[in-house]
Amino acid sequence: MLPNPTLDQLQVFLTVAETGSFSAASRALNRAQSVVSYTIANLEAQLEMPLFERSGARQPKLTEAGKAMLEDARRILGDLQVMRARVKSLREGLEAEVSVAISVMVPSRAVVDVLHEFRERFPSVALNLNVGELGVVMDLVLSGKATIGIGGAVLKQDDSVVTERIGHSFMLPVAAPNHPLAQIDRPLTLGDVREEVQLVVTDASGRTKGRDFNVLSYKTWRVSDIAMKHQLIKAGLGWGGLPASVIHDDLRSGALVHLDLDAYEQGEYAIYSMRQLANPPGPAASWMIDAFRTRLSHCPNQADFHAEMAELRDTAPPLAAE
């Protein structure tokens, strides 16, 4: 018959191992020492192996089998604590899981900060995270696959969805420093970019089908996501717009160059929280919306971003003469 130790037996075993003696474990558990010894003896009988070496030592010492069992006991009792915390949270109205869809336009630093604090505040709440482009965030909310969405591209108001502006982002036209457009030492015109390959993200949701935003070139390469577009632009395979938060470090290091192109609309891009009207968020999801609102309110606006880049260019050391 397979051993079937109880949670109580495992708790007693773990306490003896951690306190170093049966007497210390009895005090920690507020039980008679004889009860502790009897519980360990029953556990060893079930497992058909000794867990402690008792002969010739004043204090019980774990056997090799006991050391192996100790890790299993810690894991099982740890899982029990997680289950208890989840039950407590559910009784208090806290969600078991929060599903969130986040746009690539949301600054990654804000995402990391919010999720880090979320984990600390709601350790019992599971998280299901999706990252999407353009209309994907709205689609995930509408389909019920996401409890809340954080993003933009609210192109058509839907009465079943509650939206609230909580921040902003913006796109910048960029190219690799060795790209032909980056070599032109003057403001760029439409004529300059028309024949150059522009990299464009395709909206997997279909919500923006038939609509192109800031597509100025006659030659376009369409890719499925921002990450691939970013890498191809850095490789010099084309030019295109990327979220300022994504390319901040590339602009500072010189891996990408901002293109001075008036024809490219560089206005701020609103970021919204989204949720279904019929599915109001619970405490954890509501906290997450407020946390994103707070983080995004501290993100630099377009003027501040350009001022930082200008200062960086002004303080850059001059190129050495050949």
From TrEMBL:
GO terms for molecular function: DNA-binding transcription factor activity; transcription cis-regulatory region binding. SUPFAM superfamilies: Periplasmic binding protein-like II, Winged helix' DNA-binding domain. Residues 5-63 form the HTH lysR-type domain. It comes from the Bacteria. It holds the Pfam family HTH_1. Keywords: DNA-binding, Transcription, Transcription regulation. Signal peptide: none annotated. Belongs to the LysR transcriptional regulatory family. Transcriptional regulator of the ttuABCDE tartrate utilization operon. This is HTH-type transcriptional regulator TtuA. It comes from Rhizobium phaseoli.
